[in-house]
Amino acid sequence: MTERLTDQEQYRREKLARLREKGVDPYPPRVSRTHTAEEAKRAFEAAPEGAEVRVTVAGRLMTIREMGKSTFAHIEDGSGRIQIYLRVDRLGEEAYDDFRKLYDIGDFVSVPGTLFRTRTGEITVLADSITLAAKTLRPLPDKWHGLKDTELRHRQRYLDLLANPEVREIFRVRARAVAALRRFLDERGFLEVETPILQPIYGGAAARPFITHHNQLDQDLYLRISFELYLKRLIVGGYERVYEIGRDFRNEGISFKHNPEFTQLEFYQAYADYNDVMRTAEEMVAFVAREAIGTTQITYQGQEIDLTPPWRRIRLRDAILEATGVDYEAYPDAEGLFNAIVARGLEVEAKSSRGKLIDSLLGSYVEPTLIQPTFLIDYPIDVSPLAKKKPGSETTVERFEGFVAGMEICNAFSELNDPLDQRERFLAQGRDFAAGDEEAHQMDEDFITALSYGMPPTGGFGMGIDRLTMLLTDQPNIREVILFPHMRSRDRGSE
After folding, report:
1. What class has domain 161-311+372-487?
2. What is the band of 490 on the pLDDT scale with cuts at 50, 70, 90?
3. Which of 122, 218, 229, 342 falls 20 to 30 Å from 471 in CA-CA distance?
4. What whole-number percentage of the chain has pLDDT above 70?
């Protein structure tokens, strides 16, 4: 099939051919660069007045302003922009004419020359020559209006990054946040580890997995939904503080705060409980905010939020009772709880397990109200099969979830380390799975075996990096903080 080109694309192809006819390689294997744009500016500022400062800069042509026998242009690299000044008497008529006729905005160039300051005060490279580093065959998005089509921005993130500098900054903040998380944990004696992505049994969260098949082993495997069960095996093995930052995969719906592939931090600390982990969590988030954006005072979708510890703590039971009038502790079975919910005119999914009903009340009626940082603590055992019971209670476990701006950002437990209790909970989850709950935990015999060798009292924690970045960059949709979010195939229609 013949490639269909726009007029602009055709003009650029013709320029490419003319360059090659003139013996110019439009894609040379290397070009010279001695300074980035910002390094060149700093070198000029630091030099004694009147001293000659020579540099070679390289980057993408972003503006071109011809003035007869001279041209001002801007090139951009990863550090920023710098102006270049081309004159026919320095380049020679042929080279200057080639630049005017065969170079386009978007092309990559290398420019050696001497720095000077224009009458308007802009530091500029007086070019000795200009070398093409890479020819661009498609025009860049409109420089004045940027790239606004949301679907195109997500499908072609490279164009989004080119056209919208503020998007590039989002991912710089994300990188600083991840680096700060590592620094925080490393300085507290945690060991960073890697655990399997392909797992024979999925577990550690309530989610449906993606399934694949290993041909050589003739065995179905699952993309992990959590790191939890493997990290706790390491606590059994003698490490006392471990963490992992990596990808999890959950075969679930896509929304403004859910992507099927996402980045998570999990850490586990021996001889700690959920109270210790709560203190660590609030300190860690505040530390990351200071390191990534310089403050713990953030604005998220118009709401002023203070991440400074300590965060508010409230029992889940009390929060749901206050928001809905339903005391789930008064209804020990799903049918009774469902009837109580319906009697108050509230909407939840029928034929759900008791745990699902409680989770639905939390998600619909409590979570949206938690704007300032809040820990909801002490969860029902129905929704927490891996957490330790509170002393004196058979129905409540030592678990908390952290919420900011009406969104859950973290989840943590005092970890269950009784192998017999864990087996019974896996069996109960198996019954839920058989009854139609596709997110119920599976029996993991090897994990039970590991616990049987003894695991000390342990606090565990998980946090989504994507949601944390949403908060730090004031982004309302998770796709804005994932470089390449999942998109429906074009032949299936847009989302």
Report:
1. alpha beta
2. low
3. 229
4. 95
